[in-house]
Amino acid sequence: MTRSPRRGPKAPLLLVLAGLSPAVAAASVPATDGRAPAAEVPVEPQAAPDTAATSAPPAATPEIQANKSEAGEPAAVAAPSPAPSATASAEATPTEEPRGMEVTPRQLILSTGWSWLAVDDLPDALVAEPRPHPHGVALFTGYLWQVGGLGRRWPSWIGFHLGLDAFPATALSRRDLVLSYGLLVKHGLGRHHRVRPFLSYGLGAAQAWVKTIDGRGVSHQTRLSAGVDVRVGPERKTAISFEVAYKIQILPTFRWGGADILKYNFHILTVGVGATFDLAARGPRRRRAKGERRREQAG
Questions:
Q1: Closest of 30, 26, 57, 55 to residue 41, by C-alpha
Q2: Of 5, 126, 136, 153, which is most buried by a Cβ count within 10 Å?
Q3: Where are the beta strands (DSSP E) in the chain?
Q4: Predicted confidence band at 299 (pLDDT cuts at 50, 70, 90)?
Q5: Where are the domains of the chain?
Q6: What is the pLDDT, as a whole number, of residue 294?
Q7: Are the CB atoms for 208 and 251 separated by under 8 Å?
Q8: DSSP state of 171
Q9: What pLDDT score does 98 carry?
Q10: How far apart are CA 256 and CA 277, in angstroms?
Q11: DSSP 272-289
Q12: Is the pLDDT of residue 65 over 50?
């Protein structure tokens, strides 16, 4: 009676049931039939199964929804996407800076120059032939508010002016003194960052004094001028101004010699140089600069 060969231990079967592969199980148990042991096979760690992927239900495809609708089951409804939050939209959209002015831009004008009596019908000139048409000195100042050109247009200003003319050239003319004042309108020609030509006109009154005659004459004045402002300095808030002005004074009466003689008109031509100061900058620029500084500090 022949014996059946002795079977090996049942350890590989237990290892297979424990989750190891048959090759690993065979390598871990020594051979009992007299043969050389098998080479050891390194055990590679197995990744844990993805429970979320295996447990998640399949996506609701159109075929599955059609089958469910035929079977009478309710079809899956896709969840609506969440609405974007208000804070996210506010961060995505940059805030628009407010428009407006903190202070209206203003100009202060100071100038001096040469003046000449182009037309001289003042009482002291009536006694001399030919009439002297004397030269003199002119002083001028103006204070203006910008009313146009705050955006992309050409700038314009309106304000008040004050002027003084004296003629010390001759013995007769040095008796005359003219004070003028009124409204002044100034229009800039272009928006060049450094050189800005302009035109201006003014309406007002003029008072004339002649030292040898009692009283004074009050007349209407029309002032026409053209010039250019050349901006200097790092911030360009100061400009050197050159201006040529023609002033017409209509003086209907001036009591002289006990009689009222009409037409004491006189015209003055002035060539002046001075300085123009911008007293206020634009508000949005200051706010924009502050906002940029805050963003730089925050960054």
A1: 26
A2: 136
A3: 106-120, 135-148, 156-166, 176-188, 195-210, 217-232, 238-250, 253-256, 259-262, 266-278
A4: low
A5: 106-284
A6: 77
A7: yes
A8: T
A9: 45
A10: 43
A11: EEEEEEE----HHHHHHH
A12: yes
User: Using CA atoms, how far apart are residues 203 and 247, in angstroms rounded to an integer?
Assistant: 10
Q: Could you give the count of Cα atoms lying within 13 Å of 258 in the half-sphere of its Cβ?
A: 0
Provide the terminal-to-terminal Cα distance of the chain, rounded to the nearest Å: 96
Strand pairing partners for 185? 158, 201
**Residue 27: closest CA among 17, 15, 18, 7:** 15
Burial state string for 262-283 with b = 16 or more CB within 10 A and e = fewer than 16: eebebbbbbebebebebebebb
Say if residue 263's pLDDT is above 90. no
CA dist 32 → 5, 28, 35, 100 (Å): 11, 13, 7, 99
Positive/negative CA dihedral, 249, 253, 259, 261: positive
Residue 96 has pLDDT above 50, yes or no: no
Q: Measure the CA–CA gap between 85 and 93, rounded to whole angstroms.
A: 13
Task: Give Dmax over CA atoms of the chain in angstroms.
Answer: 177
Give the pLDDT confidence score for residue 90 in this predicted structure.
46
**Of residues 160, 169, 161, 162, the one with CA closest to residue 115:** 169
Q: Write out pLDDT tens, residues 10-60.
A: 555 554 455 545 555 455 555 555 555 555 555 555 555 555 445 555 555
Determine the residue type at 292.
E
Q: How far, CA to CA in Å, does 145 sit from each of 103, 156, 198, 230?
A: 10, 8, 15, 19
Mean pLDDT in the chain? 73
**Which CATH architecture does the domain made up of 106-284 adopt?**
Beta Barrel (2.40)
Coil, helix or strand for 53?
helix
The reply to whether the predicted model has a pTM over 0.90 is no
Query: What 8-state DSSP symbol labels residue 94?
Result: P
